[in-house]
Design brief:
With about 300 residues, this protein is mainly beta. The protein is globular and about 50 Å long. The two termini are about 35 Å apart. The relative contact order is 0.10.
Length: about 300
């Protein structure tokens, strides 16, 4: 099946939800990647989209971040539209907390990572620690931070500017600040700065994102998807983060076989299988993966 673009893929027990950003719609595929159902079209009405960019599973609902319409749509696991909820500012990611409700990562509150969105209004959540504040010099920066919630109710924000994981308790208190592995962090920050300079510097580049997904795993760990690929680690596409042991285990492809798909996007389907987006197209495939015990 052809897509205008593949903005995000979410695995469920019944198949895969795909957010098509350029041909605004949500497509449900079965486990063999065959289409089951197409939901929505371009527009501003119920069940319509302008730019669906993020898919999140929350119990028996699928949340769709539609930045073009500045709202979140709620779907059933079968793809039926339920309702939509307005969100403030420019959003980069969303999460649904069992007590706090909808949390939106974006630029609604400059001193905080998140906006808490309820029927009573929007409030700031997750104050940015002083040591992680970045002075943009008045330049507009596109919001890129990521957010997710683990089963214990802790809220985790991936600070893309600092490549650090900032965690908060539900009452808003700071739980921890953990930097990604030193070598990888230094490499990513250097690569991002080089990319900005190559395209004219920070006055011309709105933002460069090197980590594009943060999601919880069933065992309590987190998965961070890496966007950029380096020649010396072409098959490393993500990190499994263990906050208790302070470990970051790389997710890599088996050494055998064609690695061309490893240069495209990757979406996790458990720890043994991934959905891959081809590097120069809009097709999908699945592949086995394995964890390796080494620093990425």
């Amino acid at each position: 099946m052809a897509f205008g673009s593949i903005a995000d893929v979410l695995a469920t027990s019944g198949g895969y939800f795909v957010a098509d950003g350029l041909d605004p719609r949500i497509v449900l595929l079965d486990r063999n990647l065959d289409p089951i159902r197409i939901m929505g079209r371009e527009g501003e009405g119920p069940g319509e989209y302008e730019f669906p960019s993020r898919l999140v599973r929350a119990d028996d609902r699928i949340l769709v971040l539609d930045g073009g319409n500045e709202r979140v749509a709620y779907l059933t696991l079968e793809g039926d539209f339920v309702e939509s909820q307005r969100i403030p500012g420019l959003a980069s990611d969303i999460a649904l907390h069992p007590e706090l409700g909808l949390l939106v990562a974006g630029n609604a509150f400059p001193d905080h990572y998140l906006a808490r969105v309820t029927s009573q209004g929007d409030t700031a959540f997750g104050r940015i620690p002083d040591e992680l504040r970045v002075d943009a010099g008045g330049l507009f920066r596109w919001p890129l931070d990521l957010v997710t919630v683990t089963a214990d109710g802790v809220i985790h924000v991936l600070d893309v500017d600092q490549l650090s994981l900032v965690s908060f308790f539900p009452n808003g208190e700071l739980a921890s600040v953990t930097f990604l592995p030193r070598d990888m962090r230094a490499r990513k920050l250097k690569s991002r700065n080089e990319t900005e300079e190559a395209f004219g510097g920070p006055t011309r580049v709105l933002g460069v994102q090197s980590v594009t997904t943060l999601e919880p795993l069933q065992d309590g760990r987190l998965f961070a998807r890496i966007a950029s690929v380096h020649p010396d680690s072409a098959v490393t596409k993500g990190l499994v983060l263990d906050l208790e042991r302070l470990e970051a285990v790389p997710l890599v492809f088996p050494s055998r076989g064609d690695r061309s798909w490893a240069r495209g996007g990757l979406y996790l389907d458990g720890l043994g299988r991934v959905v891959l987006k081809e590097p120069q197209g809009v097709g999908l495939a699945t592949a086995p993966v394995r964890l390796v015990d080494r620093d990425g």
